[in-house]
Amino acid sequence: MSVENHAPTLRAATYNVHGCVGMDRQRSEARIADVIASMSADVVGLQELDVSRPRSASADQAALIAQQLGWKHVFHPAMRSGDEQYGDAIVSRLPFTVKRTVELPGIAPWYCREKRAAIWLEVETELGPVQVINSHFGLGRRERILQAQMLIGSEWLGSLGENVPAVLLGDFNSIRTSLAYRILAGFLRDVRTLVQPRGAHRTYPTLRPLLAVDHIFVNPALHATGLNVHRTPVARVASDHYPLVAELVARPQISEL
Fold it and tell me: Please, are residues 18 and 68 in contact by the beta-carbon 8 Å criterion?
């Protein structure tokens, strides 16, 4: 009998929602909330959300999603223009405290001038407090390297001890051979490497998933017992990315003799 099957778990997910505009070119925050509800997740990092932008009917998209779920949320803009905001969020059915938000370093390439950001929460889970960081890296190779280096640095993940459970998730726009990915994977563990069977778990694009650019990393205080790309008929249409969902447990502590 597996002890892990009876251990407290945390289901964490990352989901690039593409401004809640689906492959049918229809915008629907309600549809995104339906996808999240079907994951049975506890906490979800979301990327590409609008607040007060005309293209999204001036909606606060993260708030609408959280309201439909009956969850709490925090949004942090990567870009602002007057009242208009664009950025990332975390929605959670569990209580949390905001630890830090930041604009990430790096100069975006000419073909995509988007600024990037990160959100750090401490989430109260059945495992105890878990540090959850959500981010969305840029498209330029150099900016992604700087962004990865910052998140493992002394003010972010580098400030945590190995026994403090931590999860880094998001759309890193990085495949596993890229330097940005290797920087993160050299400091944390990609959940893909902890589950059986191992696989690429490709999330983008939904019509024909070819790339694994959405990742979930954990530090040594956590272990993964499951990982799946949440491929449902609704998820296939709701965004251009599928959600990636991990089931996490506390890693047993080895006492020193």
Answer: no
**DSSP annotation of 57:** T
Question: 3-class DSSP state for residue 32?
Answer: helix
- Interior/surface letters 147-177, b for 16+ CB within 10 angstroms, e for the rest: bbbbbbeeebbeeeeeebbbbbbbbbbbeee
CA–CA distance, 254 with 149 (Å, rounded to integer): 30
The fraction of the chain above a pLDDT of 90, given in percent, is 89
Q: Which helix or strand (DSSP H or E) is residue 142 part of?
A: helix 141-151
pLDDT the model gives residue 2: 42
User: What is the reported pTM?
Assistant: 0.94
Instruction: Judge contact between 242 and 231, C-beta under 8 A.
Output: yes
CA distances from 97 to 61, 123, 131, 133 (A): 21, 7, 10, 12
- Tokens 């370093």 found at: 105
Instruction: Identify whether the C-beta of residue 132 lies closer than 8 Å to the C-beta of residue 12.
Output: yes
Cis omega (within 30 of 0) for bond into 205: yes
Residues pairing with 21 in the sheet: 27
